[in-house]
Amino acid sequence: MYDLKKGYEVAKEIYGQYGIDVDKAIEICDKTPLSIHCWQGDDVIGFEKKEGGLTGGIQTTGNYPGKARNAAELRADLEFAMKYIPGEKKVNVHANYQEADSFVDRNEIEPKHFENWANWAVEQGIGLDFNPTYFSHPKSENGTLSAADEDVRKFWIEHGIRCRRIGQYFYEKTGKVCVINHWTPDGDKEFPVDTISPRLRMKDSYDQIFEATKDVKGVMDGIESKVFGIGAESYTVGSHEFCMGYVFGKNTDHIILTLDTGHYHPTEVVSAKLGAVYAFQDHALLHVSRPVRWDSDHVVAIDDETKAIMEELVRLGKLDATYIATDFFDASINRVVAWVTGLRNTRKALLAALLQPVDMMKKLEADGDVSSRLAVTQEFKAAPFSLVWDYYCSQKNAGVGLEWLKEVKAYEEDVLSKR
Ligand code: RNT
Ligand code: ZN
Q: Of 165, 281, 284, 320, which has fewest CB within 10 angstroms of its CB?
């Protein structure tokens, strides 16, 4: 290992030239919570004790051995991964990760079915986020919150209601706000003739969920849009316009817009949307993912868009206002490697964004010196943030460089491969 302290000192000198406070950047980076999605650990299947696989137009591909077969294994894998993910963390649980003795349907779930998750989070000193599971269910085949069948729609409304109550339970147990994300797969393979009725039903369903649970405390509710799902390529009820319209129209302090990086047309980017969202909103929820040609949910990379999102949050001054969650599911590689790589990349991109002279850039822009603005922003694309990252990881005992990889390989050998 190289001299980490020396690397850090050199970086401090370089960044110091621009008036950047490296220690402050580390501190902000460290305390920004990242919500780790539990579903990378078992390919989005969950532990409901019912037959049937993943539906709703999302897909995992690959059959890499060693996935978690029950919640205890999943938590053990998460614990292992978290050792190598420095900084403040939350874990994001989906409703289908319930732990009941026998099958409990979605309209009957209660806090007690998530007690192990809550106790574990308290033990780990982390917060929990939550998601209704409006997919992978026989009743989700012809719409959920937008279903024309009133019994089916009622069933999913009840699910949403139950989930908000479980969110409050998580808040009470952990003392940390529970961010709930509502995503529905509702859509059509072909172009429907009536494109508004499903949307009016979905709008009414959300209204009913929020009205019935208006006493719920400590919960934020993201509404997540999508461009299309597999098998529903022509029409999406919860489109971007629908979700944005719903959230902006409600104008409450807890209903917010979720922006998933894979849920827009391929040339649209979330980084370009944040400034518009924040012209109207106090908060937003991000699903950080990596869409390769479509919403493929690849492991988050240190790519231009991940860096641009973090830069935008820092420049907007909206880091505190934004709930950052990851959302990817790669079943073709070691799932712990997927978590650690994706989460480290997310945080590393954040650190790189914090190590930039934002005030200087803003001043150049305000002064109309757009030539210098270009030069300065480009210079920082290749700034030595990884020296600071390595030092930070060593301070947090999170493994410097690739140190963590051999540990995860050993865990694979000892634990995962025996499943
Ligand atoms: C699906 C959405 C949604 C899911 C999770 C499992 O396209 O991105 O967020 O990935 O709820
Ligand atoms: Zn998502």
A: 320
